[in-house]
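This section describes the prediction task in plain terms. A model, or a person checking by hand, is given the sequence of a single protein chain and must write out its three-dimensional structure as a string of tokens. No templates, partner chains or ligands are provided. The sample shown here is typical of the held-out split.
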Amino acid sequence: MTERTFLEDIGKPFATTPVGHARAWEIRNPWNDPSLPPLIYVVESRVGESFLLGRGLCGRPKFNLIRYIAATMVELFVEQLKTKDCYQYLILRGAYPFDLQHAFGNVPPFNRTLLPTGFTKLQRVLNREGRDWRIEDRGFIGEYGGETWLIPDTVIASGSTIATFLRNGFAHHLPREVYLFTACGSLQGLQRIYQECLKKGVALIPIYSQSLFEVSREGNLPNLPLTDLPVTNPGTITTKSFYEKAYRRYQGSRMCSVGDLGESLNDPIRYSLHTLWEMQILRMDPKKEDWSQWSTNVRGEAFKKQVEEFNPSLAEYFKDLWK
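The expected answer:
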């Protein structure tokens, strides 16, 4: 195993909860790097592990995991948040399953009133060079307010959508602080988001699940820069035990831990086809995969036909699936 930084090297245990068997770590002044917030939290949990190791999961099972991760995070930080003037902002559609509304349901005063929530639609589009993303604003519903903004987003890779939202939102109302929640987020994305907060003197408190990812410059699948989030990337920071689990699970490859989130929830068949394609590109051994953990019936004749229509070479690579 190559030498790398683990969460145990730079973090200290902060809090625990029986919900999800979770533990929060705090990282203060990481590497004394001024491009990162002075305090970062990472929450490790069984459900967080399941999410990042479950590339075969899609549809309702994956949605439920995300909801549970959100509940775990709120449980750990409720004492910090329950007396604050909180407003939540959801960037659709990626943030939809990570909505904190349900997780706050038992937290006074939100056990009687709804957590104020605004909604925005931001669309990522590849720039002309094909190396990064530009963001198109598709509208906002709600109002800007509150001293504490809560921004949950299931996956943060480049950080461009949240950075754009903050830049636009700060022009309407300037909060004192922003809490950022994610089930799978990168350090590079965090740097981009933090720059928007620094410009306006707004504190940023990131709460990440399981790992601080190094986003891959190039994706495993074509035309997807700054998208893939593998645990095995050398700059990804997690606990030593989880790194070892992920290394075994993905056969030492740089497999993205989540794939296309929206596709996994809304088009499970296409997501499963793309997951197989990524496995083929990385030369992962199909015989070492536990197909019983997949949400899609990949052994079925109907799925076999779809694989053949999608890519004949893919069907050949996974031919033992249908023996």
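For orientation: The longest strand covers residues 117-126.
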